[in-house]
Request: fold
Amino acid sequence: MLRFRMPSAACELPFLSLVPLALAADTSAPIRMKKAAIMKRLLSTFALAGAMGLCAFGAQAATKLEQVKSKGFVQCGVSQGLPGFSNPNDKGEWSGLDVEFCRAVAAAIFGDPTKVKFTPLSAKDRFTALQSGDIDVLSRNTTWTITRDTSLGLNFTGVTYYDGQGFMIRKDKKVNSALELSGASVCTQTGTTTEQNLADFFRANNMTYEVIAFATNDEVVKAYDAGRCDVLTTDRSGLAGERLKLTNPDDHIVLPEIISKEPLGPVVAHGDDQWFDIVKWVLNAQLIAEELGVTSQNVDEQVKSATNPEIKRLVGTEGKYGEGLGLGNDWGYLIIKNVGNYGEMYDRTVGPDTPLKLSRGLNALWNKGGIQYGMPIR
Amino acid sequence: MSMTFDDGTFIRNEMAPALPPPTQRIGAVAWMRENLFSGVLNTTLTVLGILLVAWVVPPFIRFMFLDAVWTGENREACLGPQVGACWPFIHAKFGQLIYGFYPIAERWRVDIVFAAGVLLLVPLLVPSLPFKRLTSFLFFVVYPVVAFVLLTGGNIDASAFLLERFGLIGSFVGDAAIGGINLVFWVDYVLTALLAIVAMGGLIALLGGSGRSAALSTFWVFLALGLVIFAWDVDVGLEYVETRQWGGLLVTLVIAVTGIVASLPLGIVLALGRRSQMPIVRLLSVIFIEFWRGVPLITVLFFATYMLPLFLPQGANPDALLRALVGVALFSAAYMAEVVRGGLQAIPKGQYEGAMAMGLTWSQMMRLIILPQALTLVIPGIVNSFISLFKDTTLVLIVSIFDFLGQLRASFTDPNWATPVTLYTGFAFAGVVYFLFCFGMSRYSLFVERRLNTSHRH
Amino acid sequence: MTDLAGPVGGRAKTSFINDPKVRSIGLQLIALVVVVFLGWSFAENARDNLAAQKIATGFGFLDNTSGFGINQTLIPYSETSTYGRAFFVGLLNTILVAVVGIILATIIGFLVGIGRLSKNFVVRTISTVYVEVLRNLPPLFQILFWYLAVLSAMPSPRQSISLFGEVFISNRGIILPRPLFGEGAGIVVWAIGLAVLLVILFRHWSASRQEETGRRLPVLWINLGLLIGLPLVAMIVTGFPISFETPELKGFNFVGGVQVIPEFVALTVALATYTAAFIAENVRSGIQSVSHGQSEAAHSLGLRNGQTLRLVIIPQAMRVIIPPLTSQYLNLTKNSSLAVGIGYPDLVAVFAGTALNQTGQAIEIIAITMGVYLLLSIITATIMNAYNRRVALVER
Reply:
């Protein structure tokens, strides 16, 4: 028999065991194999590659609601950190308007707002994550546009926050209007509509500017804070959130001009209308509840003593409206009991008493000067 | 007998004690004269150098230690006129810097993976410890499989194998599953394996080769693959943690280690391809290697993030981390191929000729004679590639994967810790961490190099 | 007699798949088929995916209006320019960083590399620490450090540091006076060109003269005189047509002058110092590869330390230094793509970043970007190889 002694140093040193693996996934004794060695190994390697290529791991078909119920939680796509909307603290606990909305969906299904898991997503990743079914709901300050609604295989379920692009500037620059910004350096995030709105605005008003575009939001904020630019532009809600990340938030103001429409809302994937309905009606129930004055504080009382038929339909003491959604009839009660109505949710996360200090504005109810309008439960 | 002379001359009869050497030639002063102040230029340089040190070092030490804040709950502790590093900030963010958004209750799994990695690496890296083959098998084969299960939670949805694609099986087995194991899949897998084994054996036998050994090696391939899939498929009762929740040092290490482990076999194949006699194989290898070496890693990551999904069948959406891993593996494989090629070229021709004269086949020659020697020679090169890969992992933050540096930068924007020194503290901490890793590895590479050098001189 | 039949019988028994030629052809065919199949299925998938996502194909988008601004443009560009123009703006910005970075890195690298071998303990230690620290920190980390940490220490434009009232340093970058070319400026430019030409010719002539006669002319002084004197004479003759526009603070920013943006400074400094650490190591090993006898011989000929280094050691060390130097230059060029991390508008940030996000045409854009880097790599490698051939040791 032929036997080769390998140099002893070689035996002692790492990475060696990989060699046979690399040449062929084959563990049989080397000397026995004499014939057709290369051809055979090559073929078997291809079999392996082919098997790996075709072997796919996918989910079984079932309705989204069944899937969610069987896994026991709602998987919700959120941002990688935007104060007021979706932001993790040091311990990784999430809070914000978008986060609360996901909790409301979980409450409607499970009666438990904690049965939700959050997936932090980048702006680019968010739609693919929804399309591939990695997440059940996308609640990540996403602007409702026709392209997204029609050609990406998505459905927007409503508007949780009516927003628009604005500008933030240092107070000591003594600027009161965006029309005084000629010659300013503007920090913005690249690859967003923000960048194009900005160019349009300055061109329309015959002003010059210098744009400094960064790949991520954190970079934009850090550069603005370092004084690299005079103005930071993004959605106004975003501005309020980003302001908190600055070293001295009180040194900065948001200018009054709004240069674009940005209706932000939750999104689901095409192809499951029941799930679409559930997410859509969770928001509507919260809006109705605010309109009717039903809050998490008084909802138990309303269940017992309410006479208003609208309230009775909302909390499930009259009619069987939950059935149409595939949920229990107390679905509305569960949302309001566990998370609260839209106003409560708003005040807790972004409202005037929070660090973001965003007044309701457009987001007030339709009968209070805003445009938030809950569809009737009937 | 006296040695004195009458004429008054005197001859000393013992040696005079040696005078001390002139102070100009030895001692600290002389050393300084020789080394520091031997000329105008040298003196200027010395003075400038000392000034530089005086300008850099004391403020650095003051910032890192003397003026540093060591305890505190939030930014209040670190606001002040003369404040150094704000270490409570690092303390508060430490969990996120190491694990990212990995659920706190599940972090023990990451700890086990880290600990197991260290436990396996130490015997692998210290040359005097025994059982190299066993530990390297454990580290390169078993460890990745186990680490995958621990980190993700395992229990993947194995739903269809080859035959199922053609709609052949599902109908009569149904949807049954035991302990997370999908029966359809496994019936499918076993049938596919049997078919493949028979087909392979038959084909090779038909062509005149040894059908038996072909069938046997196909069997081994399917068995190994099956074991891996089984380990990933079985429900071990761990919660599923998706890769989007990973972050920090965990992601940095996952990318670096996966990159190096995957690039090594690929790099060896490419290096062999580039040195092959066959023109098409050689050409393909050269194109592959030079292409990836010619483009920056960041474009490779853009390629993996935006272009790769377009090249895959519709509906196949590999997650972001996996896509980045594919990009990093291809990229580092090209560099690894060049490192390995260097080793192959260093093997004297006599080794090849000797092996061939012994009647070894090409693969036996490579596996038993050439590669063991060549790879041993290039271990420093491999470690150096690992260092640059480790440094390059920072680039994934540009495609929104939060590695150590990305997580650090995200933590800069936390309003709770917004102080003038937060930024510098973060950079100081990250700098120390990266330096320790890279410097440690480069020392190891030097150590191996020296060891190899002596063994060559004997 | 049976032995004679051996080979024939043997050949008959051995299967043709054991024939090396057949095997090699078979293997190559399989490799080719696999590559073609992969390419074909990628193309098929890409076609389906693009159709499903309603993404346009082709290079027509290069003629569309880009609609975004860029803050450093070496050629005229505005929001109404095309994507094609944005591409060239990004490319030129990449080349600018690469060229400036390479020059800086070479200078620092040689100084530090020589410093590592210095007899001076202080210089040696500082050089060693420099190399070890900078080599072992990720380049992106260093870029972010230079950008964020150094930038936030800079004053705002109003409090900018002013040098002679002409140059201003602030967190908006470095603002330099802009030269304005009046009538007759062309003559001055020609004079500068002529001076450069004369300097090159004079160097050649004095070198050959030195070879013949052994006498050295004061080349440096004569050259300096030429370089300064000729343009000066031209300026006087034409009546100083070149004036400088001093930047002024108006509103938010400086108006007038040339602005060197901080992104450029941070990126160039970080890349140059990082790459210099590697170049220093190449220089050190190059110098160490020159036999000690060479410097002893040079000293015994009466050459001073500086002369020994410049005339004897470095020319020989260059042969060892050039090949790794080439790959360091390539690395620097490729690392310039990290610009995207700090918002410097290089090729990747402008084209593979903004333009890609706006058009969604990933395949075309990434292919173009990768192609450009490949081309840059090939060009750099070709130039350095040509140089390498010139300095390589010519053996018998």
